[in-house]
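Reopening this one. Same input as before:
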Amino acid sequence: MNNFSVKMGIVGGVCFSVLGQWPIGILQTILLATLGAVVSFIVSRILQRWFKDD
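Same output, byte for byte:
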C-alpha cells in the first residue's frame, strides 16, 4: 500500500464520518442542489444542440 492510498483512505473516512454527523436537511439540500445543477446542465446542452444555428 502506498502513501497516496493511505491519505485517500483517511480523507474518505473523515468525509463520510462528517457527513454522518450532519442533519438530514443539509444533506438533502446538497443532494437536491447537485441534482438540479446536473439536470439544468443536461437540458441546456440538449437545447443547444436542438436549436443549433447552422
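So the earlier flakiness isn't reproducible anymore. For the record, Residues 3 and 35 are 34 Å apart (CA to CA).
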